[in-house]
Amino acid sequence: MKNRSLIAGIGIGLLFGISMVIGTVIGMKSSEQVSTFDLDGLVLKAAASDSSDNFSVATGAISDQAEGAFFLDALTGDLQCIVPYARTGQFGGIFKTNVFNDLQVQRTKKPRLLMVTGESQFIGNPRPGNCLVYIIDATTGNFATYYVPWNRQLESTGRPQSGVLVKMYAGQARNITLSQ
């Protein structure tokens, strides 16, 4: 009788351990898919963002090895992106611009700025970073899109880089039209 209890206890313990391993593997696979979605062959990846009345922060992939952190000051219109290098673990890139002119913000009005990022694979040489940052003034509906003029050679050698975030497009979010 003691042997049966011992064997049953070991068996239950093994089943519990195997279940834990299977649950961990399934959990790891499902958490990987939370931020990546496949939509008819188009892979979409989520980025993080958050905001308050006066400040917004968002992240986005700049290259295969680097993610940028974007900071938007709604009081000054200053948009900054800092990028750590995976190779060195130090911040190697900083890029800046002011969004007020592109959003046509009147200095006497207080804008309500929102910011999100999206991933894009540009073609060409030089090829900018893989991230677009979208800024919108919720009071007027004016928006602007920027990209990081990323230099992959500087990244691969660990040399610092800086520059101006490049405006890709600016317009009105209400009744959007694209010119040909």
Q: What would you say about this model in short?
A:
The chain is built from three helices and twelve strands. By secondary structure, it is an alpha+beta fold.
Account of the protein in words:
The structure is a single chain. With 180 residues, the chain is an alpha+beta fold. It folds into 2 domains: 33 residues; 130 residues, no CATH class. The chain contains 3 helices and 12 strands. A hairpin with a 4-residue loop joins strand 5 and strand 6. The longest helix has 33 residues. About 10% of the residues have low confidence.
Features of the shown structure:
3 helices; 180 residues; 12 strands; alpha+beta; globular
Question: Termini separation (Å)?
Answer: 85 Å
Number of helices: 3
Structural class: alpha+beta
Low-pLDDT parts are: 26-35, 37-44
In which range does the helix fraction lie? 10-25%
Strand element count: 12
Rg (CA only): 23 Å
Largest sheet: 6 strands, mixed
